[in-house]
Design goal:
Blueprint: H1 4-31, H2 40-51, H3 54-85, H4 89-104, H5 107-117, H6 123-145, H7 149-157, H8 162-200, H9 206-215, H10 219-256
Helix pairs in contact: 2-10, 3-6, 3-8, 3-9, 4-6, 5-6, 5-8, 6-8, 8-9, 8-10, 9-10
């Protein structure tokens, strides 16, 4: 039974994808306008053409590197600040309105302000950081505050060191909150990072490719580049979550032992 269920799920997913591709193909034939909607066959053909150019790969590497830098920097800073804030109610109160404002402010507003102060080349780093930081901070803080105080008191009585406390008490409780934050923020950082590049138009970026496709009304390029963004975003999301879940299972096994 355990082998049948995953196979059935894959078949259902493939069938649904094929259905919508056929709907897309039918609509493109019905509309018959390359500017409004091109066929999936045309998009895939254009994608293969782009994959054979060095400039396209440089643009992908440019954007991926900067968005990942913003994401990893935000995660690191958020976890460290959450650990400090967990010990200070005054700091939590001080940060609350600031983080609430960051979450409520539109990406476009941040981009326009950032362009007044910084170069557009590192714009996606800043925007990705700002979108991810509040989510990871809030979840990590909640996880730290939910740690069993009885276990912490027992660790203090038995003089368990900080490293072992982190490994056996804090991490098992905080990691589920962190996983939840990652699942939300990974997709968000890609969307906001690429959106920032479309507005700032840094040379040699995916955002510039999308902007050029818009200017030239090249729907095939627009959809091909968008497909690459989706695939890269999903790949990194699956990779990060897989690594995080593996870490969680290893920690659970260590704690049980």
């Amino acid at each position: 039974m355990s082998k049948v269920q995953p196979t059935k799920k894959v078949l259902l997913t493939a069938g649904a994808a094929l259905f919508w591709l056929l709907v897309w193909q039918a609509l493109s034939l019905k509309i018959n306008n390359r500017i409004l909607l091109v066929s999936p066959v045309t998009v895939l053909g254009r994608l293969f053409e782009l994959l054979q150019t060095a400039g396209f790969w440089r643009a992908v590497a440019f954007t991926v590197g900067r968005i990942l830098l913003g994401f990893l920097s935000a995660c690191t800073a958020a976890v460290l600040l959450a650990a400090v804030s967990a010990k200070s109610a005054a700091l939590r109160g001080l940060l609350r309105p600031l983080l609430g404002t960051v979450q409520a402010t539109p990406v476009a507003s941040f981009v326009i302000l950032a362009l007044l102060w910084f170069s557009s080349r590192n714009l996606s780093v800043l925007i990705s950081f700002l979108m991810v930081f509040p989510i990871v901070y809030a979840n990590c803080l909640q996880g730290i505050l939910s740690v069993d105080r009885g276990l912490l008191e027992m660790a203090r009585v038995f003089r368990i060191g900080p490293l072992r406390r982190l490994l056996y008490i804090y991490l098992p409780d905080v990691l589920p909150y962190l996983l939840s934050a990652l699942s939300v923020s990974l997709g968000l950082c890609w969307k906001s990072g690429v959106a920032a590049e479309v507005i700032g138009i840094p040379v040699g970026s995916i955002g510039e490719l999308l902007y050029q496709a818009k200017v030239h009304l090249d729907t095939a390029d627009l959809l091909a580049v968008t497909l690459v963004i989706i695939l890269v975003s999903l790949s990194f999301e699956k990779l990060f979550l897989w690594l995080a879940y593996r870490l969680q299972r290893r920690l659970e096994g260590t704690v049980r032992v």
